[in-house]
Amino acid sequence: MLGLYFFISLLCLARSDTRETCPSFTKLSFHSAVVGTQLNVKLMLYTRRNSTCAQIINSTFLGNLNVTRKTTFIVHGFRPTGSPPVWIGDLVEGLLSVEDMNVVVVDWNRGATTVLYNYASSKTKKVAAVLKEFIDQMLAEGASFDDIYMIGVSLGAHIAGFVGKEYSGQLGRITGLDPAGPLFNGRPPEDRLDPSDAQFVDVIHSDIDALGYREPLGNIDFYPNGGVDQPGCPKTIFGGLQYFKCDHQRSVYLYLSSLREDCAVTAYPCDSYRNYRNGKCVSCGAPQQEPCPVPGYYADTWKDYLKEKDPPMTKAFFDTAEEKPFCIYHYFVDIITWNKNIRRGSITIKLRDKAGNTTESKINHEPATFQKYHQVSLLARFNQDLEKVAAISLVFSTGSVIGPTYKLRILRMKLRSLAHPERPQLCRYDLVLMENIETVFQPILCPKLQM
Q1: At residue 240, does pLDDT exceed 70?
Q2: Please, what is the Cα angle at 360 between 354 and 361, to 5 degrees?
Q3: Among candidates 329, 309, 342, 165, which has minimal Cα distance to 263?
Q4: Which CATH number characterizes residue 334's domain?
Q5: Is residue 289 located within the same domain as residue 426?
Q6: How many C-beta neighbours within 10 Å does residue 243 have?
Q7: For Ca(2+), which residues are the binding ones (predicted)?
Q8: Residue 14 burial (CB count, 10 A)
Q9: Is 365 a known active-site residue?
Q10: Are residues 268 and 402 in the same domain?
Q11: Is the pLDDT of residue 204 over 80?
Q12: What average pLDDT does range 282-299 have in this prediction?
């Protein structure tokens, strides 16, 4: 009798544990990827009431989903190893921290898990069909198109686009995080993400030379570091798996940074990365003009500005640091020289504050040309923002290993912050830089009326 009671107690405990267990993202093995998986879409709802324990929902059961609030769908991409995306939990947490919303994780790992990319790609429109059925039910219960937001990563970006097409672009917003390029590059709009798929479409391209899509796909397309090699990612195959996916995933981490970090990454609308690096596209940083766009969650603050453009599309460029929170602070270094002969070379500038903190910028993406009495404005990028600069150092280099060394005679150097144009501009006059030798000096305030 005692044995029977013990057995019943264990059975009740097991049932209790089953009821209390939280649903989790599908976890598969590499073996599953090799043999292939049949498509199965699982929708997991998170709200501030259940921020750490998902509720399984579907088109016949909306669960705790509040149709009067914003609903954000997170759609992942190709999963060649079967493992859950490492960023899913952080993205759910970050979204719920900035707004009281419904977050729906679209788990299509069964279908995305395969070593055959084209197989996963072929499932994207089927995933979109499942999502349309669910959204149809949301709309029937009173949800608004304006409140539906889709975040798609890689293949997930195109899935979001296919859902948007089903509603003729009425969805509130789609964010594409490095939309997949292979099998989608060059495809017509009906077969990929397109600016017409939602009321506002923003895209971050972080791997356009490999796994990502090169051309613009949204109303605003952000290209961090030109959209290619991301700082901090392995440059050779010896970096292992990170070599293949680090650049591609950086788009997700930049989006996460926009949710939870205390610095806002600033982007600059421009027609090319080269023109941005050469300081030709920084007008949005000036006073009395429209604010610069920011990639990530708050990119839609530029929606109204883009409506005034025909077509309502633009590309924006920005650089990042190697590590979180990825922020770069932009300054202009204006230099007027008085060398008799033209000098070509690069400038390295280092800033130091009274506490001894230092930050450095190497402006060496292409040689600058210094002509007598001509001002050269160089865009310097620092990974720290020193509010009060106590000392500046400059190094001039022609990049020549052999041959004579040169001098750069500076009539005036001026440092001005783009991030904080209200800060006093710093100047120094009558400097002579010996090539490859660091020259350190204390700056002085520029005359206020000086242009």
Answers
A1: no
A2: 140
A3: 329
A4: 2.60.60.20
A5: no
A6: 15
A7: 192, 194, 197
A8: 10
A9: no
A10: no
A11: yes
A12: 76
Q: Do 237 and 283 belong together in one domain? A: yes
**Per residue in 108-130, is it b (16+ CB within 10 Å) or e — as a string?**
bbbbbbbbebebbbebbeebbeb
Residue 154 falls in the annotated catalytic set: yes
Q: Do residues 92 and 66 both lie within one domain? A: yes
Catalytic residue of the set 32, 154, 206, 258: 154
- Would the annotation count 207 as a binding residue? no
User: What one-character-per-residue DSSP string does 96-114 give?
Assistant: HHHS--EEEEEEEHHHHBS
Rounded alpha-carbon distances, angstroms, from residue 5 to 12, 18, 194, 257, 397: 11, 20, 63, 54, 85
SS3 41: strand
Cβ–Cβ < 8 Å for 52, 22:
yes
- Identify the domain containing residue 431 by its residue range: 329-445
Mark whether 420 is an active-site residue: no
Q: Give mean pLDDT, residues 14-31.
A: 73
Mean pLDDT lowest for which of 96-110, 209-223, 402-416? 402-416
- Residues present in the chain in total: 451
Give dist(CA 219, CA 138) in Å, integer. Answer: 26
Asked if 253 and 389 sit in the same domain, the reply is no
In the predicted structure, residue 371 carries a pLDDT above the cut 60: yes
298 shares its domain with 371: no
Q: Do the annotations mark residue 19 as ligand-binding? A: no
136 and 37 within one domain: yes
* Beta strand spans in 47-142 (E): 55-57, 71-75, 102-108
Average pLDDT estimate for 32-40: 93
Structural domain contains residue 323: no
Both 82 and 153 in a single domain? yes
The phi, psi pair for 68, rounded to 5°, reads -85, -5
Residues 64-88: tens digit of each pLDDT: 999 999 999 999 999 999 999 999 9
| Cα distance between residue 37 and residue 119, in whole Å | 10
Which CATH number does the domain housing residue 116 bear?
3.40.50.1820
Please give the tally of structural domains in the chain.
2
Contact present, 152 and 175 (Cβ < 8 Å): yes
221 is in an annotated binding site: no
Pair 208, 214: CB distance under 8 Å? yes
